[in-house]
Amino acid sequence: MFKEYFQYKGLSFPQVIYAEPVLQMVEKDFQVRDDDIFNVTYQKSGTVWMLEILSLIRSNGDPAWCQTTPNWDRGPWIETVIGYRTAVANKSPRIISSHLPARLFAKSFFRSKAKMIYTVRNPKDVLVSLYHFASMFHPYKDPGTLDQFLEDFLKGDVPFGSWFDHVKGWMNLKDKENFFFITYEELQEDLRGSIVRISKFLGKDLDDAAIDSVVANASFESMKSNKMSNFSLTPKFIMNQKKSAFFRKGISGDWKNHLTKAQSECFDHVYHERLQDLGVTFPWDKK
Ligand code: A3P
């Protein structure tokens, strides 16, 4: 079972944790509520970071919820078998996480007033982060050499498919009132300012002390040492953090320590070809 993928509408999903009937239910049956808050990303783009920020904003800066409840219960990944059940059962206002591309997402979202935060990260850092993740997350296939993995990533031949398709699909919503996009790099540059912007988008008026608490409790160090957020409660047969920690480096630009000049240029070539019509400039495009 482990390390085998099944195909669903052109995407690969691991055999454990995911199941086709659940993916169908997400798309067709899941009832989005107008006060739902969706935390959507391509994997390794800062999902759990945003989940912590949203959990803390929901609690007005009080860290108690984050310190007592695992992140997968606070903001379940709707496409997983267990996450779907948790999301259906959770009380409003729900936080729901997802790595699904827009074309496979809950249809009822697009008719709702639910809010979505979409976090995007420099795809070269996503590649490096995913490369390490694939070596410690046992449902994923061994990534092989970085050169092989780069090729798979650029082709979209990895779970959840192409980063380019994901970003293009979701960024179609960029002018919608209930859609807010932010980058991992902006969170890095100005965490406080980003939290203020996210709170405003969510209609939450937090005072300075509450914002300070969100900033402190969503820092890399706080999260890395919080067992409700650092996946140390995940069984070892799913994640082996001795191979690579989930909270690995938490920096921008680590790709420069991994990709050769030729690999980086190959990436740039595909990036420009695939995203030239997007009409959005990301922080890494300016450098
Ligand atoms: P690295 O592997 O580059 O360290 P996701 O949650 O989407 O799986 O993303 C995981 C990545 O986000 C990892 O990147 C992880 O270290 C980083 N991350 C998680 N929390 C963070 C935080 N509070 N600050 C900075 N980076 C964080």
From TrEMBL:
<dbReference type="InterPro" id="IPR027417">
    <property type="entry name" value="P-loop_NTPase"/>
</dbReference>
<dbReference type="InterPro" id="IPR000863">
    <property type="entry name" value="Sulfotransferase_dom"/>
</dbReference>
<feature type="domain" description="Sulfotransferase">
    <location>
        <begin position="34"/>
        <end position="279"/>
    </location>
</feature>
<keyword id="KW-0963">Cytoplasm</keyword>
<dbReference type="GO" id="GO:0008146">
    <property type="term" value="F:sulfotransferase activity"/>
</dbReference>
<comment type="similarity">
    <text>Belongs to the sulfotransferase 1 family.</text>
</comment>
<dbReference type="GO" id="GO:0005737">
    <property type="term" value="C:cytoplasm"/>
</dbReference>
<protein>
    <recommendedName>
        <fullName>Sulfotransferase</fullName>
        <ecNumber>2.8.2.-</ecNumber>
    </recommendedName>
</protein>
<dbReference type="Pfam" id="PF00685">
    <property type="entry name" value="Sulfotransfer_1"/>
</dbReference>
<keyword id="KW-0808">Transferase</keyword>
